[in-house]
Amino acid sequence: MTAARQLTAAALGAALTLALAGCSSGDKDSTPKGDGRPELKISGAYVPQPPTKEMAGGFLTVRNGGDQADKLTSVSSDVAGKVEIHKTVKQQMQRVKSLSVPAHGTLRLGRGGNHLMLMELERKPEKGQTVTFVLHFARSGSVTVKAPVEATNYTPEK
């Protein structure tokens, strides 16, 4: 019985060794680039100076160079008690729980479209200041972004 167990253990060990060897190759060029996860980059963030002290808008672009989609699930800010994620449908704002960031795609938050609404402002953002956003993503975790406050009628170059 002891010899049979030793033989079985040796066979299992050999099978495991072969399986592990098959999963990895010594050729570095055959290893896929990246790990298939989202690869997010945030750009173009800004907050137009609001005309009143009640609320403000936030705009930015999220580019995903990764193989998996992600979702913007919530946002917080240093100047607002609450930040809502909005999409615009037929020229009407709708609060949503999340916005998708497609794999190898872009999520744009801009005037007239998807955007952030800063509510319960603790201070009115003034041109020349900076607003900090913490963007929370389903897969990528939290990303902190510094957004300059621009003139009320500011429109970024495309």
From TrEMBL:
Annotated spans, Disordered: 23-45
Protein name listed in UniProt: Copper chaperone PCu(A)C
Bias type Basic and acidic residues, positions: 26-40
Keyword Signal listed: yes
InterPro entries: LpqE-like (IPR007410), Lxx211020-like (IPR058248), PCuAC_sf (IPR036182)
Keywords: Signal
Biological source species: Streptomyces oryzae
Lineage: Bacteria, Bacillati, Actinomycetota, Actinomycetes, Kitasatosporales
Signal peptide start-end: 1-21
Pfam families, sorted: PCuAC
